[in-house]
Design brief:
The complex is a heterotrimer. By secondary structure, chain A is mostly helical. Helices cover about 75% and strands about 5% of the residues of chain A. Chain B is of the alpha/beta class. The longest helix of chain B is centred in the C-terminal third of the chain and has 16 residues. The chains are: A mainly alpha, B alpha/beta, C mainly alpha. Chains in contact: A-C, B-C. At the A-C interface, helix 4, helix 9 and helix 11 of A face helix 4, helix 5, helix 11 and helix 13 of C.
Chain lengths: ~280, ~250, ~300
C-alpha cells in the first residue's frame, strides 16, 4: 500500500503542479482570481470526450485540439467578460463565477448529469513493486513532466515569456518599458487556460467526466498556491506534491471519500496558521 | 522622558530591498518634525512601520514609553497614533460628514478640546478646522484633490490623536490649498499636537519647523535644525542635481 | 429622516403589506408555496448581503448557515418545543459563523471568497459520510409545526424583520462603518476601526438570520438533506443578491422574488434554472452593476423627469 501511495501521489502531484501553475500564471500576471478556471478543465474534458467518442478522432489529435480550443476559449472569455470589468476586481470575480456555473449547466444540458467515460489511449497496465498502475496513468505523468519543462522554457527563453515575467513583477514598470501589458494578460490567460485544459484532458481517461468536476481542480489549485506561494516554480511543485501525497495518504489509510477533505484541511489550516505559505511568499499580504 | 515617539534601530526589508536600515530618532511631545528625502528613501515605509501597516524586521518603536512595535493599525489609533495616506483614500460611499464620524476617537489626545471653537460637536470642530464643514453632506468622492487631502487630515484628527503623521500632505495642492493646509498645521502645532510630516515641498514647512530628519536609501543621514541639516555634506550629496533640495531653502 | 429613505420604507412596507394580504384572494396552495419559497430566498439573500453587499466581501458559503439551521430543525424538531427550535437554529448558525469566519475573514477580497466556497462542500461531504446521524443522501424527514398559510406568514414576518435590521443598520453608524470597510479597509483601519471584528459581526448577524430562515426552509420542504449545502443553493443566493443589487437593502429581496418566480415559470425545464440564473447574472454584472434596484432608480428618475416636462 505504501507503494500505491507513493506512485499515485507522484502522478497526482504532477497533475496538481500543472493545475497550480496555470492558476498562478493568471493570478501572478494579471492579479485575476479566475473562478472559471475549473470550468476550463471541465470544457477540455468534455471536448476530448466528444472528439473521441462522437467524432472518432484518435487520442493525440483530440487532446491537442481540445487543449488548443479551450485555450482560445479562455482568451475569448478574457476579452469579452473580464477585460471590460478589469477596474473592479470584485466584478471580475463574480462574472467568472457566473461563467463557471453557466458552463457547468451547459454541460448538464448537452450531456446530462450522467458521468461519461473517455477511452484510454494506452490500454493495459503494469505492476510496479506490487502496485497496479495503468499505462495511461504513467503516460499522464510523462506528459505532465514534459509540460512543466516546456512551460519553464517558455517563461525563461521566449520573448512572450520574459514579458509575462516582467508584467508579473511590476506591471507599471513593464508598461513604462514599452511592454504591451494587455497582450501579456491575454497570453497569460491563454497559457493558464491551456494548462487547466491539459490537466483536464489528461485526467479524463481515468476519472469520469461529469458536470460537477470543475470545482475540485479550482480548489486544489488554490490550495497549492496558498501553500506554496506565488514566487517560485519549485515552491509550487513542492506544494503540489505535498497536497497530492496528503490526499493519497488520506484516501488509502482513512477513506477514499475523505480525499478532498485533506485538501480542504490543508487550505484552511495554512490560511489560519501560516498565511504566508510554507515558503513565505504566500498570497496573504 | 519627554519623548512621545521613540524609534530605535528600525529595519524593514522588502523582497531583497532594504527599505529601512537602522533608523533611530525621537520626537518630543509638542514637537513638529519634518522627514525629507529623495523618492524611494523609505519615508512612507517608515510611517507604515510606525503605524502598524508594516511589521519591522528589527528594531523597536515606543509611544509615550510603551512599546508599540508591530501592533495592528487600529490598535495604534487607540493608543493615540494617527496617520494620513500619501494618495488620499476616501470612503466613496460616505459623505464628508459621515467620513469623520467613522473615526474612532482614542481619548489619548486632548488637542481638539484645547482648540475649543465654541462647544460644537467633535466632528463639527474637526471639519471646521479644515474648512469642510459647509460641505459635510457632499459625497466624499466628489471632492477635489486638495479637499480630499484635507479630508484625510480631518479623518485622522477625528481619532483625537496624541501624535499625527502626515504623509506628503502638500503633494498635488494649489497655492490657495497649500495656504489652507499650512494654517491647519500651524493651528495644530500651536495647540500642542505632536506632528511628524513627510514632505517634498519644503518651502512652506522649512519656515515653520525647527526639526528636520533626512532619509536616504533607508538610512537616516541627518537630523537637526534646517540650517544644520542643509550644511550636512551627505545631504547636499543626496540632493545634488535634485529639484529644489534642502540647500535652496535654508 | 430623508425623503428618499421614507420613500424606501414606505415602498417596502407597501410591498410586504400586499404580500401579506395575498392569501385573502389567492387560495391556490401551489402559488402560496412558491411565494413562501421566494420569501425564504429573500431572507437568505438579504442576510447574505450584510457581509457581501455592505462590506463587499463576497461570501460563497452562505448555504452553510441556513443549511445548519435546517438540519437543526431536523434533529431537534422531535425533541424540542417548536418555539425553541428557532433559537437553536440561529445559535447553530452563529457557531458556524465563527468556525468559518475566523479563518476566512482575515483574508481580503477574492481569497476570502474562494475560501468560503469550501465550507458548504465540506458540510455536504460530512452529511453524506455520517449517514447514521444525518440520514445520508436521503436526509431527514421534518414534521413542521407550521404549514400552508401559517408558514407563509412566518416567512413573511421573518423577511420583514430581516429587512428592518438591514434598514436600521444601513442608516446607523454601524452601517457607515461597514460601508467604509467596504470602500477601503486600510483607510478604515487607519481610522481606528477593527475591521476583522466588524466583518465577523456582519457575518454572525447574517448567519443568525439565515439560520432562522433555515428552520422555516426545513418546515417548507418537510425534509432536509445534503443538497441544502450544495453549490446550487450557495450560488443561487449570490446570484439573487447580485441581480437584485448588492448593498441596496431591498435589492437582494427583490432579486430573490424575481428569480424565484422566473424559475418557477420555467418549471417544465427544471434543468435550465441555474443556467438562466447564471446567464442573467452575467448580463447584470456586465450591464447593470447595481442590479435591478438601480434599474428601478433609473426608471424613477425618468418618470420624474417626464412628470416635470408634462407639468410645463
Amino acid at each position: 500500500m505504501l507503494v500505491d501511495i507513493v506512485i499515485f501521489g507522484t502522478i497526482w502531484g504532477a497533475i496538481y503542479t500543472i493545475l497550480a501553475l496555470g492558476f498562478t500564471i493568471i493570478f501572478g500576471v494579471a492579479r485575476i482570481l479566475n473562478l472559471a478556471y475549473g470550468a476550463m478543465y471541465l470544457v477540455a474534458s468534455y471536448l476530448i470526450y466528444t472528439l473521441v467518442t462522437r467524432f472518432g478522432l484518435p487520442a493525440v489529435p483530440a487532446w491537442l485540439l481540445a487543449v488548443a480550443a479551450t485555450a482560445v476559449a479562455g482568451m475569448l472569455l478574457y476579452r469579452v467578460f473580464i477585460f471590460p470589468l478589469r477596474e473592479t476586481l470584485g466584478r471580475v470575480l463574480i462574472v467568472t463565477a457566473g461563467i463557471a456555473i453557466f458552463l457547468q449547466e451547459v454541460a448538464v444540458l448537452i450531456y446530462s448529469t450522467e458521468p461519461r467515460y473517455v477511452p484510454t489511449v494506452l490500454p493495459g497496465s503494469l505492476e510496479i513493486l506490487g502496485a497496479r498502475v495503468t499505462h495511461q496513468q504513467l503516460l499522464t505523468l510523462a506528459v505532465a513532466v514534459v509540460l512543466v519543462a516546456l512551460l519553464h522554457l517558455f517563461l525563461a527563453r521566449t520573448r512572450y515569456g520574459r514579458e509575462l515575467r516582467a508584467v508579473a513583477q511590476d506591471s507599471e514598470m513593464a508598461a513604462l518599458m514599452g511592454i504591451p501589458v494587455e497582450r501579456s494578460y491575454l497570453v497569460a490567460m491563454g497559457l493558464s487556460t491551456g494548462l487547466a485544459a491539459a490537466a483536464g484532458a489528461l485526467v479524463a481517461p481515468f476519472l469520469t467526466v461529469n458536470p460537477e468536476m470543475g470545482w475540485s481542480p479550482l480548489l486544489v489549485a488554490f490550495t497549492v498556491v496558498v501553500l506554496g506561494g506565488l514566487g517560485s516554480l519549485w515552491g509550487t511543485i513542492a506544494a503540489a506534491f505535498i497536497v497530492a501525497y496528503a490526499e493519497m495518504l488520506t484516501a488509502f489509510l482513512i477513506s477514499p471519500q475523505l480525499r478532498e477533505a485533506a485538501t480542504f484541511a490543508i487550505m484552511i489550516g495554512t490560511l489560519v496558521f501560516r498565511p504566508h505559505g510554507l515558503f513565505g511568499k504566500g498570497i496573504v499580504e | 522622558m519627554s519623548a512621545l515617539l521613540a524609534v530605535e534601530r528600525v529595519t524593514k526589508r522588502f523582497r531583497g530591498l532594504t527599505a529601512l536600515s537602522n533608523v533611530s530618532f525621537e520626537v518630543a511631545r509638542g514637537e513638529m518634525a519634518v522627514v525629507i528625502g529623495p523618492n524611494g528613501a523609505g519615508k512612507t515605509t517608515l510611517f507604515n512601520a510606525i503605524t502598524g501597516f508594516a511589521r519591522p524586521d528589527a528594531g523597536r518603536i515606543a509611544l509615550a514609553g510603551e512599546a508599540i512595535t508591530g501592533l495592528a493599525p487600529h490598535v495604534m489609533v487607540r493608543r493615540g497614533l494617527a496617520r494620513t495616506f500619501q494618495i488620499p483614500r476616501p470612503f466613496r460611499s460616505l459623505t464628508v460628514g459621515e467620513t469623520v464620524e467613522v473615526s474612532r476617537a482614542s481619548g489619548a489626545g486632548s488637542v481638539l478640546g484645547a482648540l475649543g471653537r465654541g462647544g460644537a460637536g467633535f466632528a463639527e470642530r474637526v471639519l471646521r478646522l479644515v474648512q469642510l464643514w459647509e460641505r459635510r453632506d457632499e459625497p466624499a468622492g466628489t471632492l477635489s484633490q486638495g479637499d480630499l487631502k484635507l479630508l484625510e487630515v480631518a479623518r485622522a484628527l477625528a481619532t483625537d490623536p496624541a501624535l499625527l503623521l502626515l504623509d506628503e500632505p502638500y503633494a498635488g495642492l494649489g497655492p490657495a490649498e497649500m495656504a489652507r493646509l499650512t494654517r491647519v498645521v500651524m493651528d495644530l502645532h500651536a495647540a500642542g499636537l505632536t506632528l511628524v510630516i513627510i514632505e517634498h515641498k519644503l518651502r512652506e514647512l522649512m519656515k515653520l519647523t525647527r526639526r528636520v530628519i533626512v532619509l536616504h536609501y533607508g538610512e537616516k543621514i541627518a537630523d537637526g535644525t534646517p540650517a544644520e541639516v542643509s550644511r550636512e555634506p551627505r545631504v547636499l550629496e543626496a540632493y545634488m542635481g535634485g529639484r529644489g533640495g534642502v540647500a535652496a531653502h535654508a | 429622516m430623508t425623503r428618499r429613505l421614507a420613500l424606501r420604507y414606505a415602498g417596502a412596507a407597501a410591498a410586504l403589506g400586499a404580500l401579506a394580504l395575498l392569501p385573502v384572494w389567492v387560495s391556490n396552495p401551489y402559488v402560496l408555496s412558491v411565494l413562501t419559497l421566494a420569501a425564504l430566498y429573500a431572507i437568505f439573500a438579504s442576510s447574505w448581503d450584510i457581509l457581501s453587499g455592505y462590506i463587499g466581501q463576497i461570501n460563497f458559503g452562505h448555504a452553510v448557515f441556513f443549511g445548519v439551521g435546517a438540519y437543526a430543525a431536523g434533529f431537534l424538531g422531535p425533541h424540542l418545543p417548536a418555539l425553541l427550535v428557532f433559537p437553536a437554529g440561529a445559535l447553530a448558525a452563529v457557531v458556524f459563523a465563527f468556525l468559518v469566519g475566523l479563518p476566512c475573514l482575515k483574508l481580503r477580497g477574492p481569497y476570502l471568497s474562494l475560501t468560503t466556497l469550501v465550507f458548504p462542500l465540506i458540510l455536504e461531504r460530512l452529511a453524506f459520510t455520517f449517514r447514521d446521524v444525518t440520514g445520508g443522501e436521503y436526509g431527514i424527514r421534518v414534521v413542521p409545526p407550521l404549514s400552508g398559510t401559517g408558514l407563509y406568514y412566518a416567512a413573511l414576518g421573518l423577511l420583514a424583520a430581516t429587512l428592518a435590521v438591514l434598514l436600521a443598520v444601513s442608516e446607523s453608524r454601524l452601517g457607515r462603518t461597514f460601508r467604509a470597510i467596504g470602500d477601503d479597509d486600510l483607510a478604515a483601519m487607519a481610522a481606528g476601526v477593527n475591521t476583522t471584528r466588524y466583518k465577523l459581526g456582519a457575518f454572525v448577524l447574517g448567519a443568525a438570520l439565515a439560520g432562522l430562515g433555515g428552520v422555516l426552509y426545513a418546515y417548507h420542504l418537510r425534509h432536509v438533506g445534503p443538497e441544502v449545502f450544495g453549490l446550487f443553493t450557495s450560488f443561487s443566493i449570490v446570484i439573487m443578491g447580485i441581480v437584485g443589487g448588492m448593498g441596496t437593502v431591498l435589492g437582494p429581496a427583490i432579486g430573490a422574488y424575481f428569480l424565484t418566480l422566473l424559475g418557477e415559470s420555467l418549471r417544465e425545464i427544471e434543468t435550465y434554472r441555474l443556467l438562466v440564473y447564471s446567464g442573467v447574472m452575467i448580463l447584470c454584472v456586465l450591464f447593470l452593476p447595481r442590479g435591478l434596484w438601480s434599474l428601478g432608480e433609473v426608471l424613477l428618475r425618468l418618470a420624474r423627469r417626464r412628470g416635470r416636462q408634462a407639468a410645463r
